Amino acid sequence: MKIDINTRKKKCSCMSCELRNLVFSFLEEADVQLVCETREEKSFAKGEIIHHEGDMIRDFKYLKSGLVKLYKTTSEGDEQIITITRPFEFVSNTSIFHEEKYRYSLSALEDSIVCCIRIDLIRELILRNGKFALNLISVLARTSENIISLSLEIRKRNLAGRIAYVLLYFSKELYHSRIFELPVSRKEIADLISMSSANVIRTLSEFRRDGIINSNGRTIEIPDMNKLEMISMRG
Amino acid sequence: MKIDINTRKKKCSCMSCELRNLVFSFLEEADVQLVCETREEKSFAKGEIIHHEGDMIRDFKYLKSGLVKLYKTTSEGDEQIITITRPFEFVSNTSIFHEEKYRYSLSALEDSIVCCIRIDLIRELILRNGKFALNLISVLARTSENIISLSLEIRKRNLAGRIAYVLLYFSKELYHSRIFELPVSRKEIADLISMSSANVIRTLSEFRRDGIINSNGRTIEIPDMNKLEMISMRG
DNA sequence: CGCGGCTTTGATGTTCATCAAGTAAAGTGG
DNA sequence: CCACTTTACTTGATGAACATCAAAGCCGCG
C-alpha cells in the first residue's frame, strides 16, 4: 500500500483515541483539546525513515499503528537494532527530554502512523499537571526497561538461543500467533542479535530441517512452542 | 575501612548537599526540609549488597559517594553487569516508578553512601512541583540512555575492543587518571562485557606484554591512551 | 598455616565470522 | 511486459575468535 505524500498530515479526534488512555489519561478536556489541535499525525510507508540520529528533536512521538525499529548506525556503517516495537508499547526515544538531537534512528517496518506533539507542549503539560507527569515518567521508564531487558536477554544466549528468543518474541509479543510474517529481513535479525546474517540464515535453515519451525520466505510457523522455548532457555 | 552498623543511618544538611543541584534543584526550601527530615542515609561497605532483584521497592535511592554495580543474576546463576556508576551520574533504577519490585540488584564496589527517600514522597513532589518533575524526567532519561549506550558500545566490539573500551571508561569516566585501581575483579569485567574471565585475563596479559598497559594486580596504568583508543575503535 | 577464592597460562574443541559462489526474488527501465 | 539489475537469501568451506577445562601459583583471611 503506497501512501500519498498529501495524506502525511491528517486529523482525527483525540478524545476518542485509544492511545489517550496510555499517555494522556490524566489530562483535562481542555488540555486534550490543546494537544489535539497542535499535534500532527504522519504516515510512513514500510521502509521509510521516521527520523535519523542527529536530527533535531522537536516532537514527542508515539506510534499509533504499524511497527518500527529503533537503531543506531556504527562508524563502520552497519546497523545495531535496539528494539522493534508496536503501538501501546512504544512511546518515544527517551533522549527527547535531555538532548537536542536524536541519538538513534527510527524507521517503519510496516506502514505506520506516528502522532507528533510539540515537545514544548509536553513540557508545559508536565509543569502544570502532576498526574500527567507521574504517568509519563512511568511510561517512559517502562520503555527504557524493555530495551534494557531485551539486551540482557539477548546477550546471555548463544546463536540458536537468540534466534529462538527472537522468534518467540515475534510470535508471542508482536503477533500473538503461531503463524506470522517476519517483519524484518534475515540481515535485520542479525543486526538485532549481533550475529552475522549468514549464520542467522543457517540457523533458521537448521530449525526448519529439524522441524522446529516451518518457514517459507518470511512466513514462519511454530508447530511446537515448547521445543523453541527449550532452545531459547538452554541457549 | 570498616563501617559500623550503627553508622548506617546518619543525617547531614540537605541544604548544602552537593547533590541537591542534581535532583532537587527546583524544590522550595520547605520541601527540601521535608525531604531532609524523612530521608535516610545508609552506608555500605565494599562488597555489600544495597538491594537484591525481587526486593520490594520503597525508596528512591541515589548515590552520594562510592561506586556501585547494577546487575542481574541469570537462571544459570551467573551475573550480567548492567552498569558501573559513580555519584552525579547514577540516580536509581528506573523501574521504581512502574514496578513493585526491583528488577536488578545493586551492590557496592567501594564503600558507598546511599541517600534513600521514600518513593511516596517523591511521587508527592512530582504531583505538586512541575519543575521538579521535568528535571527528574531528564535525569532518569539520562541514566537509562547511559545504560543503553554502554550496551551498544560493548556489543559492537570484539574481546580486545571491549576490554580497551572498559579500561578507557574506568580511566576517563570514573577516575580521570591514567593510573587507577580497578574497582572490579577480572570476573566482573567478564560479566560486564559478556566474555569468559579466562579470556579477559588473557587479553589483559597480552596488553601488558605488548606495552599497552602496565598492571600489577588491580593497579592499571595506561602509558599511551592513543594505543588503547586505537584498539577500542577498531575492535 | 591451611583453606578457599581469585588469577594465570596452556591445551583443546566449539562456535561463529568470513569468504565465495550460486539461486531466488524483487524492483527498474526500456 | 520482458530483459536487466539489484538485493535478499542460501549453502559450503575455511579459519579466526572465543569458551571450556585443567593445573598450578598467588594472596588474603580466619
Whole-number total of structural domains of chain A: 2
CATH topology term of the largest domain in chain A: Jelly Rolls
H/I helix tally of chain A? 8
Second rung of CATH, namely the architecture of the largest domain in chain A: Sandwich
Task: Tell me the strand percentage band of chain A.
Answer: 15-25%
**Would you report the number of β strands of chain A?**
8
Provide a descriptive summary of the structure in words:
The structure is a homodimer. By secondary structure, chain A is of the alpha+beta class. Chain A has 2 domains: about 10-155, Jelly Rolls (Sandwich); about 155-235, Arc Repressor Mutant, subunit A. Helix content of chain A is about 40%, strand content about 25%. Chain A is built from 8 helices and 8 strands, in the order ααβββββαααβααββα. Chain A has helices spanning about 20-25, 30-40, 120-130, 130-155, 160-175, 185-195, 195-210, 225-235, and strands at about 40-45, 50, 60-75, 80-85, 105-120, 180, 215, 220. In chain A, the strands form 2 sheets. In chain A, strands 1, 2, 3, 4 and 5 form a 5-stranded antiparallel beta sheet that branches. Chain A has a 3-stranded antiparallel beta sheet with strand order 6-8-7, covered by helices on one side. In chain A, a hairpin with a 2-residue loop joins β7 (about 215) and β8. In chain A, α3 (about 120-130) packs across α4, α5 packs across α8 (about 225-235) and α6 (about 185-195) packs across α7. The longest helix of chain A is centred in the middle third of the chain and has 26 residues, at about 130-155. The model of chain A is unreliable at about 1-10 (pLDDT under 50). The interface of A and B includes residues 82, 130, 144 and 233 of A. Chain A binds a DNA duplex (30 and 30 nucleotides) through α7.
